[in-house]
Q: What sequence folds into this?
């Protein structure tokens, strides 16, 4: 089944009671049982819900996995994954990653004896140097957030197999339309489904996809035991959003490519971070493991000050100043004070996340309007 067909049909069946084509929102907390322990597969909504079940089947198919587990947010999904580990275990993670992921690893799980090491995962030698008997998981973001570095998923997974380390890939930036890490050897794929999967900036949800039954059982146990589950309406919204995933991401990629080329011509712009450029250090790997270069673009200014960045951030009309990404509308953000504010400045600067760095989530609007909007804002800098 091709991807464009999967997004619409995988895991989706007409409602058996009414024939409804769209998966109903099963807004119930419990289910009637014929006799004690005898039911129709559903007991209590924290444990099972038909709307959530349909979404999970759909997500598993999109990522070429076998099992998916939905959570109340991307951070709840990450929390469940890290809970697979034991006190004393260690995680090797990208040194350029979402601020919330950094915060969870350092401020939440470190308290319970799980230590994280942050390293440039584009350099396999540096990754291997950190591996010890305590290393139990690799945590990859690719493209990374917000510097858009490209990590070689297949190479890191091969390293993981060699040292018996689980490899988890955060596939939020790429979406399964552009990249399927399980096909490249990943054990676990995680999404903030709030972003490209939902696609309309109207829902918060997370998901984990795996291929092995034992991992799936552990994650389902945590989902039920901890209870960080999404509601049925949230699941419905993500299911609805997924139906146009291929159309939206394709358009975002096309627009992002033109935005990146436009930025290259601006004298106020210093560096542009976009894997679609041939001089991007990860361009070759991106071509091999992705089916497009994504809808994200980051750039810094020659006059590297927060004041100059603010002139752009405060003067766009179509690019909305807001956190998040992956919606149909274009967003503009300032990682240093927004999405990555929880990362110490010295750590941010190590990866090039300066005060003038601006991150764009390019939407599906007409490209001429988006370029005009950015052009007017950039001209505010003399």
A:
């Amino acid at each position: 089944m091709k991807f464009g067909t999967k997004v619409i049909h995988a895991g989706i069946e007409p409602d058996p009671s009414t024939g409804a084509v769209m998966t109903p929102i099963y807004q119930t907390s419990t289910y009637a049982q014929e006799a004690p322990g005898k039911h129709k597969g559903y007991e209590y909504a924290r444990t099972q819900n038909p709307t959530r079940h349909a979404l999970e089947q759909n997500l598993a198919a999109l990522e070429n996995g076998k099992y998916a587990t939905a959570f109340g947010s991307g951070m709840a999904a990450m929390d469940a994954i890290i809970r697979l580990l034991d006190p004393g275990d260690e995680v090797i993670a990208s040194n350029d990653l979402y601020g919330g992921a950094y915060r969870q690893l350092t401020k939440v799980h470190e308290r319970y004896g799980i230590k994280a090491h942050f390293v440039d995962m584009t350099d396999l030698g540096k990754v291997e140097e950190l591996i010890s008997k305590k290393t139990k998981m690799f945590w990859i973001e690719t493209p990374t957030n917000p510097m858009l570095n490209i990590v070689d998923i297949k190479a890191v997974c091969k390293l993981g197999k060699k040292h018996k380390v689980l490899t988890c890939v955060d596939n939020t930036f790429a979406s399964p339309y552009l990249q399927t890490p399980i096909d490249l050897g990943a054990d676990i794929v995680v999404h903030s489904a709030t972003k490209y999967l939902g696609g309309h900036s109207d829902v918060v949800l997370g998901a984990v996809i795996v291929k092995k039954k034992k991992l799936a059982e552990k994650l389902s146990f945590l989902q039920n035991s901890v209870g960080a589950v999404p509601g049925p309406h949230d699941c419905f919204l993500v299911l609805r959003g997924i139906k146009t995933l291929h159309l939206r991401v394709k358009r975002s990629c096309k627009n992002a490519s033109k935005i990146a080329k436009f930025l290259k011509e601006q004298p106020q712009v210093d560096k542009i971070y976009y894997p679609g450029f041939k001089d991007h250090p990860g361009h070759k790997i991106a071509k091999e493991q992705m089916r497009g270069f994504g809808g994200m673009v980051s750039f810094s200014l020659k006059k590297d000050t927060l004041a100059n960045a603010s002139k752009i951030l405060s003067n766009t009309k179509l690019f909305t100043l807001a956190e998040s990404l992956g919606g149909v509308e274009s967003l503009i953000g300032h990682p240093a004070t927004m999405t990555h504010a929880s990362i110490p400045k010295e750590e941010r600067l190590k990866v090039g996340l300066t005060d003038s760095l601006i991150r764009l989530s390019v939407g599906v609007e007409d490209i001429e309007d988006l370029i005009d909007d950015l052009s007017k804002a950039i001209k505010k800098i003399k």
About this structure: The first strand starts at residue 67 and ends at 71.
